[in-house]
Specification:
9 strands, 11% strand, alpha/beta
């Protein structure tokens, strides 16, 4: 989208069938661009350094709208998605970064998602009334003008009646975010639950809600952490069933908890926060468990995968079930293909990739042929190929002929080529990477070539030559995919082509980082082989 002052413009991908509303709704995009009429247009950042005042506000107003329209849980999951975007970036910078080569470098997860997270933490610090009053002053005072981060801080300070310099110094001017480890134990003599929070350097000042659940009793306390360690104690008549630290993820941080399966199952079943229940499902899926515990984990996840549980929790539970074996997990995943929510059905289809039974393949094929939504069909075709259908290339060709929103089914089918080997698979990938195919398909086919060339050395020469050509493609995203594919191949023969890209022109930050990573991994043919 683009927030032109006279009229907002959106891309064609905002147009979708009603069946795709669960996964392709444009509501938050419309809200984001509408918010820019105030934050970005009526109040414009004084320089690119303060871009987060445009994009952070527009991103956070998406969350505020979701809270209003769909409840607090919807806002929590929206912020969590932003956090994953920011955390996934390979660098850390201050969000009011004064040093950059190109303004485009600032349009990233730091500006949007971390900017929104900072505003949310400011709201939590001040409370809704003072936060809204501060925003009113900020907008009214600077209407039709230019703004900087200090303008926002001063407006908030005036209304809040407190100094916010330390807050802005930590969250706006300092790169990174806190890393916190949480552990707890029960003291039977004192009848208390003792929760220890440890923070790695650099230290941030944090106020984190801690909820201790014992039987039918929920006890909430606040933990203040501004150094390496703090301990909070809560009266408890018995060992806690589970403990939650910042369950709504109000604070942007890496939180390390290791509660074990019984506590996670209790959290999945009984937490009052949907995001916390979804995180419990994720954690269960990642646990290394054996013996009878597997059955308990699968049973808990299967129960959480059914309505009336929140759709995001059902989705997380099904994703976790996909990492387990056995008939009960498979049955729950197949049942998930009939869920009312298309995103949940897609998670079920993706989870069945590791189940190679006739019943799974039959259910996946029915989803691919009959589901009206794009996301479940895309996941189904990818899982069918992975699950070992008799003629995977024929299925991929069928999928390529079926139109879908944003070409998602075609992208999934091309991506599934990574699990197929041989000259025919390489030929298909080369065809789908060709100019004239949809951009998204070309990107995914280029990535698939990197995997195919790596797993099938006999096809290496064909793949290498084409990937080197794609380094000069007209589409920047295809060039980026080609760099990643060559990094995956790690073939010294391709290094000169990667080196030759360096001085050509100024690239985006993503492309520069990808190029540097590839050059670190692809050996230099002129360097001597390491001694044995």
């Amino acid at each position: 989208g683009m927030e032109n002052t006279s009229i907002t413009t959106l891309t064609q991908d905002t147009l979708h069938a009603e069946a795709d509303e669960d996964t392709a709704a444009s509501d938050t995009l419309v809200v984001h661009e509408l918010a820019h009429q105030w934050f970005g247009n009526w109040l414009t950042c004084r320089s690119w350094r303060h871009l987060w005042l445009n994009e952070g506000f527009a991103s956070y107003i998406e969350t505020l709208w979701l809270e209003h329209a769909k409840g607090l849980d919807a806002g929590d999951f929206d912020r969590q998605g932003g956090k994953q975007w920011y955390m996934g970036e390979a660098y850390r910078r201050r969000i009011d970064e004064p040093r950059f080569e190109d303004p485009d470098d600032l349009f990233d997860g730091h500006t949007y998602a971390k900017g929104a997270a900072v505003l949310h933490m400011l709201r939590k610090k001040l409370g809704d009334d003072r936060f809204r009053a501060g925003l009113h002053r900020y907008v009214k005072r600077h209407a039709d003008g230019l703004v900087s981060t200090d303008d926002l801080r001063r407006a908030m300070e005036k209304v809040a009646g407190e100094d916010l310099e330390a807050f802005f110094a930590e969250w706006v001017e300092r790169p990174g975010h806190p890393k916190v480890k949480a552990r707890w134990r029960f003291d039977a003599n004192l009848k208390t639950a003792e929760i220890t929070l440890e923070q790695s350097r650099p230290f941030f000042t944090l106020d984190l809600p801690v909820i201790v659940t014992t039987g039918a009793l929920w006890t909430t306390t606040m933990a203040h952490l501004d150094g390496a360690k703090t301990v909070v104690r809560v009266e408890a008549s018995a060992p806690p069933d589970f403990v939650e630290v910042d369950p709504r993820a109000d604070t942007l941080m890496d939180l390390d908890v290791a509660p074990g399966l019984p506590a996670l199952l209790a959290q999945l079943r009984r937490s009052q926060v949907a995001l916390s229940r979804a995180q419990a499902a994720d954690a269960i899926g990642s646990l290394d468990i054996t013996g009878p515990a597997i059955g308990r984990a699968v049973a808990g996840l299967a129960a959480a995968s059914r309505a009336p549980e929140h759709a995001k929790v059902r989705k997380a539970a099904l994703a976790a079930l996909g990492k387990r074996a056995g008939l009960e997990a498979e049955s729950a995943l197949i049942a998930g293909l009939a869920d009312a929510d298309a995103a949940v059905r897609a998670a079920a289809a993706a989870g069945l990739a590791s189940f190679r039974s006739d019943s799974s393949r039959k259910a996946l094929r029915e989803t691919f042929d009959r589901d009206g939504a794009t996301a479940p069909r895309a996941a189904a075709v990818a899982s069918l190929v992975t699950a070992g259908v008799p003629d995977p290339l024929a299925l991929i060709r069928v999928a390529m002929e079926r139109p879908s929103h944003a070409n998602a089914v075609q992208v999934a089918a091309v991506g599934a080529l990574e699990t197929v080997s041989g000259a025919a698979a390489v030929t298909l990938a080369l065809d789908y990477a060709a100019w004239g195919r949809p951009r998204q398909v070309r990107e995914r086919a280029t990535e698939a070539l990197g995997h195919l060339g790596s797993s099938d050395k006999a096809q290496g020469k064909r793949v290498r030559g084409r990937l080197v050509e794609l380094l000069q493609d007209k589409e920047a995203t295809v060039r980026l995919a080609a760099i990643g594919a060559l990094e995956n191949l790690a073939d010294p023969v391709t290094r000169p082509a990667l080196v030759a890209m360096k001085p050509q022109r100024r690239y985006s930050r993503d492309l520069e980082l990808a190029l540097n990573r590839a050059l670190e991994r692809v050996p230099d043919p002129a360097s001597p082989a390491p001694s044995k």
